[in-house]
Amino acid sequence: MHFHVITIFPTMFDSYLSESILARALKEKKIKVSLYDPRQYVTGKYKKVWPDGNVSRIVDDRPYGGGPGMILRAEPVLKALEVALKKIEKSGSGKVKIIHFSPSGKKFDTAFAKTTAKKYTDIVMLAGRYEGIDARVVKIAKTFVGAANFSDISIGNYVLTGGELPAMVLIDSISRQIDGVLGTYESLEEERISASEFYTRPEILEWKGKKHKVPAVLLSGNHKDIEDWKLSKKA
Predict the structure, then answer these.
(1) What is the DSSP letter of 151?
(2) Mean pLDDT lowest for which of 36-40, 127-131, 211-215?
(3) Are residues 73 and 11 part of one domain?
(4) Residue numbers of the domain that contains 136
């Protein structure tokens, strides 16, 4: 699986992708992550070279019709998207899906992650910022891959400052569905009976004068009773 993220803050992904399971998956080439910064594709009046050599690349502008905040301009985002799609085409990869993050999008869940991991080889994610991305990006992006391979996605009933965190959520959740990313099949919680309570050593935890014990059923060795207990505690 190859993830492609269109974002004006690519360094936000550095720490998350350099730790734990995802870092190992990247090292073992179970997954790939490519980041594309729309700022690199700013041209014309929106690009200014200062006397000291610094370059300003403006990726946002005021919304037509008024309203608060700024909107990511279509042109640099579309150029970044084209670069990603050309890279995919050149690699000879299979099926491509484009995901746009929106508070009004379809709620993301494990079923979506499973289907996406099985059906696609490349996932392109549009991580918006400020008040969002010019709506023409979404309309044009659908013509690139077809409406069936485009999704508006929300990760919850709340508003974030950008699409980078949702992109990380999808990378994490979808990667878990790829063979070899997790240590063992049993580590995939959704494929076994999981509970909302977990315990490990020591059997008796002494904390500030009180003893906190592991539930006796977990020490019983009775697998049926343990499974029943897990079902009763299932989140």
Answers:
(1) E
(2) 127-131
(3) yes
(4) 2-185
